[in-house]
Structures are given as structure tokens and as C-alpha cells.
């Protein structure tokens, strides 16, 4: 017994945890008595605790009763009511006010029936269950009656009694009451730290006992189920007695903890003064005298229960403490997920301003490409905004270089290649200027490509209904072959009275048709960038806000953000119109240089075909002046102008394309979408939050009734768990 006394402190801690309702959050070591309504449960409890539990129907168990026995120098009994998991705040206050003075064990036993009636009244329990005309009160409740017994002779034991299972409604009991009791029993016996005391009447076939089936459901191996066989005195047949003995001896339906057989006072036992020892004299008779003495009688059962509870408490104490620590962590996480309280205007504005500040901090890192400052960039590729926008520009270079023009330019020998231009230029758009604008890099550009961040962007655009005003790139064919014939046709359709040159209208018409695909490219490219911007906004809000709030914030931002999206598209169309609908003009000296270079190459090719090698040096060729005259005479006027128009068009196209793509990136994307004063990325800011009215704040981030209830529950749980840890560490 000294070892059991040594575990008294642990048992006391477990009882304190149970009072804090920690048992509803984590399994506590406990012993639960379960059985049918007529199984002899009340009589067994009386024998174990010396509490005269009533056996009449009106006062039978309608709620769980926790009976705690502790050894103490002072003899006293205290009763209290513990709220169940479903108790409201008001009910908890009411039950906490149920105070009764301490009683001596003798006073308590004498007043127990009266105390039960007071408890039933406080809990709102109906005792007249057979009177269907009285509909006041409930039949069962998940609240708990706690009885704490202290005396110098008490053993260290805690037993929880739950209502007995019944199958047929009687009086005011209903099928829902049957189900409620069944669920209550299962809630108590399901925990792995619960010892199940299955009370089984000896005079009933054990195979018909539902409580044993329930125990098997939650303890399939029978490792924590202890069978208690009651009412052996009413088993008269020898065969019936042998069945009971076989259970105790483990010959039938064995349990790891085994079976015990006890003889208690029955409901119709007139001799209420008969002692347990006197009742158990029957075990000296056959066949009971063949059973092991440690498996027979209340004393043996009580010693085993005390030992079991002590062992499980010691074994599970450290794991229990760790589980409470984990519960604290989870509770803090759940509380943090709700955010700060948002009941007053100040709390709401502070809370939303904090989110806006974090959003802008994340945005700054995304635009600057400083991804190492936040782990979110590693887990969410759509947040790498600077990289995505640069990649979009590369995609535009590729596709625009291949298919941005209607007709393929004629190839001339010794002309500078696109690759050479790209490598030597530091400009973004210099990489986009081809000789014939065909066959460069790759072809990955589209309004939404197949990368993971683009898949997410597409999803966000569709969910928010933005796909309707954005544009995808048409499936253009490669530029057409035969530009010389096309230029001749342009010349014939637009020539004027000029004698020695072609008119400006010819170049204007040719350029407008050659650049007819530019607007589609511009709108598709900007739409693609809008998709990336939108994916960033939605993902960032999703990461920074508790569930659901990101959608609420977006609903407030949507109109202004979408207007700014549209402004960038309008800028793209404006830039296209400037290039295509105005008279071709440039201050860029590259135009003249390119025209002169083209003429030189063309003349050089013509002269080379009429030259001959010098007999004096391999590096010298000879050209007759008469050949030049002959070449000039043979060149028809229309062919001459065709070449001039081609060279002028190609040279101007290069300059205009470079200017167009530079402006498209700098103005429509970088200024309108990324870094300008009025980009969609800058709508959600702390300044925007300051401008919200109190009604808008309440609508946007005010705590819902559900959230307030969740926060209150988590705060109460935080307090209970803190108290629990203080108990476990004390």
C-alpha cells in the first residue's frame, strides 16, 4: 500500500485536470463503471464506496457521477457539479454556484437521497419519468456530479459511474434518450487510458450483454476491460454457476484483466444492515470455493482497481503532460489563425492595417527580386513577381521575333544578324529586333503558359471573372513569303506623281500592314502580365489572411484594381495606335544608317556579279564602268523603287519595333502595373485602410458571431491548459 500512497499526488493531479474539463481534450487515466440499467451497477458502487446509491427508478443514474476517494487525516465528503462539454457559459455559472457545506461520511450517507434531489433540481433532471403529463426538465445530461470522500481509512481510487444502457423507451424516455446514453457511455470508454468496468449480471447470458459488445468495439483486444459479475446469489442452477466460474477462470470469453465475482445488496434486499462480509459467505460454498480468492469479493476487486488506477496513472503521466503541451501549441495556433480581436473600430483598423503593411513588405521584396527575405517565395512560385515579369518579356521577344510581322523580309548577304544585335545591346528591346524577324530563340509566349505559376494565375483569373476582358494571342501563321510582289502591289496602289522617288504614303501603308499583328501582341503580353500581377495579389492575400478574409478584402479591392488593369491595356492599345496610325518618323540615327547599309549591300552584290578578278592580286577585283551603266539601264523603275521601299520599310520596322517594345514594357507594364504611382499592386495599402469608414471596417474585418465564439472558447481553453500545465509541473 505504501507504493499506492506514493502515487496519491499523481492521482490528485489527474482529478484536478478532470475538474478543468481537460478530459474532453485529452484522455485522462480513469475507471468507468458501465452496464445495463438492471445490471447491479448501483449496488456495486455502494459496496466499493460505502455510498448508499438508490436503486429506485426515480433516483437512478441520469448523469455521470465521479466518485473520488482519498486518504486524509480529516473525514469529510464534498459534492460539486462539473459542467459537461455541451454546457453554455450561463449553465457553467449556475453549476459553479451549487455549493454545499462539507459533511461527515455519516451525515453524507444519511442525506444522500436528499442531496441527489437537490442535484437533480439544479441540473433540471426529471425524476417522475413515468408521468408523461409533466414535460418539465430533461431526462439525461452530460454534466457530472463529483463526490469527493476523504478519511484516514480511504483507499486512493476514482471511479466514474455513467447511466445504464437501456433499449426500450419507458414513460417519458425516448429513442433519442437511448441514443444519448449510448453515446455518453461510448465517449467515456473510447479513451485508451480508461479502464472499463463492465458490470454483468450472473443470471443473464453474457452473449446478450450489449455493454460487453460496446467494450469490444473500443477495446478489441480486451486489454483494458475488466468484467464484474454481480448477482451470483440468484443463480440457482448448477450449470449457471459453472458458466460464471468458467468466466472467472478465463475458460470462456477471456479478458486480459479478467473477471471478478461479487455479491452486493439487491434492490429487494430487506436486510440492509447485512455486511459485505456476511453476503460473501456464499463464496465458501461450492462451486464458488474453487475460484481464486483474489478474484472473489469486493475487497479483492477494490484492491485490484486501486492497483490498476495507480499503474495506469504512473505509466501515462509523462505522455499525458506531453499531450497537454501539444494541445497548448495547437490552441495557440488556432487562436493565432483567428487574428487579433476585431470588435472595436480601432481593433479592426489596426488589424487590417497590419495585413496591408505585410502585403506591401512582401510586394517590395517581390518587385525587387529579394526572395531570400521570406520563405513564402520558395513555397509559392507565383510570388516571384520580378522573375515572372522578366520571363514574360523573354517570351514576348521570342514570339514577336517569329510572328510579329505579316511578311518575311528579303535576305541580303553580309547583313547583320539578329543574334549579333542581341549580344551587343543592353536594351531589352534590342533583343527583339530581327533581320527578317524569323527563326529566333524559341516559341513559348502565350497569354497564359504552362508553368505552375501560370496555372495558378489562370485559376485566379477565372475564379474572379477577369478572363472576359483579357486577351490571348491568336495562333498566327509564320510571316508570308513573297514580300517583293507585295511591295510592288503596295507601290502600284499608292504611287503618286513623284518623278524620282516614292511618296511617304507608300511607306506608311506598307508599315501599317506589316505591323498589323502588333495590337494583338501588345494586348496579349499585357494581359499575361496582368495575370501574373493578379496571381500575386490573390496568393499574398491568401497567405496573410485567415480563411475567408482574403476573399472579403478582394471584394473591396476588385473595382479599383480591375480599373487599373484596364488602364494598362488601354495604354498598350494607345502605344500601338501611336506607332501604326501616325506618319512614320524617328529621330533615331540608326534608321539612316540601316538604309545606307542596305543600299551599299545591294549595290555591292550587283557590282560583284559584274566584276572580274585582277591578274595582279587576289584581293583586287576589276569593274568596268560600262557595267555600271549597263546595270543602271537594265534596272526597271518599279524594281528600283521596290528595293528602295523594302530597305526603307525594313530599316524603319527595326527602329519602330525597338521603340514600340521598349515603350510597351516601360509604360504599359512597368509603370502601369509594377512601379508606377497608381499600379494595381498599390491599391491595398495602409493609406487605403485609413480611408475606410467604420461601417466598411465592420463589414470587412469585424468578428462574426461564430469567430467571437471560437475566440472565447480558445481563450478559455488556453486558461484551462495553462492551469493544467501548472498542475502537471507542480
TrEMBL record:
Single GO term (MF): microtubule binding
PROSITE patterns to which the protein is assigned, alphabetical: G_DYNAMIN_2, GED
Record's keyword terms, sorted: GTP-binding, Nucleotide-binding
Pfam families documented for this protein: Dynamin_M, Dynamin_N
GO CC aspect terms: membrane; microtubule; mitochondrion
InterPro entries: Dynamin, Dynamin_GTPase, Dynamin_N, Dynamin_stalk, G_DYNAMIN_dom, GED_dom, P-loop_NTPase
Residue ranges that the Swiss-Prot or TrEMBL entry lists as coiled coil: none
GO biological process: endocytosis; intracellular distribution of mitochondria; mitochondrial fission; peroxisome fission
Domain GED per the UniProt entry, residue ranges: 642-730
Domain Dynamin-type G: 25-319
Name used for this protein in its record: Interferon-induced GTP-binding protein Mx2
Organism annotation: Pseudallescheria apiosperma (Scedosporium apiospermum)
Phylogenetic lineage: Eukaryota, Fungi, Dikarya, Ascomycota, Pezizomycotina
